[in-house]
Design goal:
Blueprint (H helix, E strand, L loop, with lengths): L17 E5 L26 H14 L3 E5 L9 H11 L2 E6 L6 H10 L3 E6 L4 H8 L4 H14 L4 E7 L7 H10 L4 E6 L4 H5 L1 H4 L3 H18 L7 E5 L19 E4 L5 E2 L19 H7 L1 H4 L17 H4 L4 H8 L15 H10 L15 H9 L1
Parallel strand pairs: 1-2, 1-8, 2-3, 3-4, 4-5, 5-6, 6-7
Antiparallel strand pairs: 8-9
Helix pairs in contact: 1-2, 2-3
The structure holds FE2/S2 (inorganic) cluster.
Enzyme class: oxidoreductase
Pfam families: Radical_SAM, SPASM
Family: Belongs to the radical SAM superfamily. PqqE family.
């Protein structure tokens, strides 16, 4: 693969501060809002232990400080402890992003001993039925509760993540209460962002504006109550950009600080970029230094020379970078377009239409397509 010739090759970014290692696409759960690619079943062979450790070392030498270990479910990797231990030796602040499935008390202890800094466990809902509806597992809820307690018992910062969508948003108070009962330090109430499987299932997941406003009241009320608590839990409520009039500065700008490595070693500026019609390099073929500074894929949307109107002459372009390239591609067919979330975009009507559809009764929208290998193969092959 060629690694030179980008129109933005003269732009020299800072180091990739945040390395996301997607160790595997394997996962025992089937969440229909997973941001993994819909064709994950047909991806190449996973990097082995030595290849991952080499990636960690190269990125660290360039200045990477934060390491996210995610998937799929990273606990399905039998070498996870070895990878955590290697990350610790290199001096990373490491974060395991997990469903909790595959975790047990011995593994929590082993991860702590290996030097892991942080475990983030995801829940689907405040109760077993809602959890099962999304995760596709009857046993998951109870197991997650036990593992959240085990994580707390080992003095990890307790970080819980719950993806919010139209099926659970009306129970957001119960979800917060569950997190407080588990003595969470941070709670991410992350309203679904429509990438990967979530984009496929958008109609069945997107809450209405009325649902969202009610949820914001509930979160604000909890925040007020927590102000005087001895150890206040931080509630982070990520609202969906589909209800905004200006786009998010996705990844803080393309190729500016985030580096994602997929299970097969493909290097991406964000977790969703592989769907774009851009040739991305692989760590099996190139060094991280070459990939970060010289590959056409990473230079493609650096700077602002690539921007068409209305972004090119917009006085906000250095704040939002034109929004999200992946969203522009999914909604307009051209990743260089302004993110349609922006009210100045000629494609903003696609966002307005999605908002209007969001209140459609569930019996009038397509059923959810669950993230599993069978569906992945069916979708990929059409
Ligand atoms: Fe890829 Fe926003 S998710 S640029």
């Amino acid at each position: 693969m060629a690694t030179t010739g980008s129109p933005n090759a003269e732009i020299r970014p800072g180091p990739p501060l945040w390395l996301l290692a997607e160790l595997t696409y394997r996962c025992p759960l089937q969440c229909p809002y997973c941001s993994n690619p819909v064709d994950f079943a047909d991806q190449g062979q996973e990097l082995d232990t030595g290849q991952w450790l080499d990636v960690f070392a190269q990125a660290r030498a360039m200045g990477a400080a934060q390491l996210g270990l995610s998937g799929g479910e990273p606990l399905t990797r039998p070498d996870l402890i070895e990878l955590v231990s290697g990350a610790r030796e290199l001096g990373y602040y490491s974060n395991l992003i997990t469903s909790g499935m595959g975790l047990n008390r011995d593994k929590v202890r082993a991860l702590a001993d290996a030097g892991l800094d942080h475990i983030q466990i995801s829940f689907q809902d405040a109760e077993a039925a809602g959890n099962q509806l999304m995760a596709g597992s009857r046993k998951a809820f109870q197991h997650k509760l036990e593992m959240a307690r085990a994580v707390k018992a080992h003095d990890f910062p307790m970080v819980l993540n719950i993806v919010i969508h139209r099926h659970n948003i009306d129970r957001i108070g119960d979800i917060i209460q569950l997190c407080l009962d588990l003595e969470a330090d941070y709670v991410e109430l992350a309203t679904c962002q429509y990438y990967g499987w979530a984009h496929l299932n958008r109609q069945g997941l997107m809450p209405s504006r009325a649902q969202l406003q009610q949820a914001e009241h509930v979160v604000a009320d909890y925040r007020r109550r927590l102000e005087d608590a001895a150890n206040p839990c931080q509630l982070i409520f990520v609202v969906p950009d589909y209800y905004e009039e200006r786009p998010k500065p996705c990844m803080n700008g393309w190729g500016s600080m985030f580096l994602t490595i997929t299970p097969d070693g493909t290097a991406l500026p964000c977790h969703s970029a592989r769907q774009l019609p851009i040739d991305f390099p692989n760590v099996r073929d190139h060094t991280i230094e070459t990939i970060w500074h010289h590959s056409p894929g990473f230079n493609h949307f650096r700077g602002d020379a690539w921007m068409p109107e209305p972004c090119r002459s917009c006085d906000e372009k250095h704040e939002d970078f034109g929004g999200c390239r992946c969203q522009a591609y999914m909604l307009t067919g051209d990743a260089a377009n302004a993110d349609p979330v922006c009210a100045k975009s000629p494609h903003h009507h696609t966002i307005v239409a999605a908002r209007e559809q969001a209140g459609t009764p569930l019996d009038q929208v397509p059923p959810l397509t669950y993230r599993n290998e069978r569906n992945a193969r069916l979708i990929y092959r059409g």
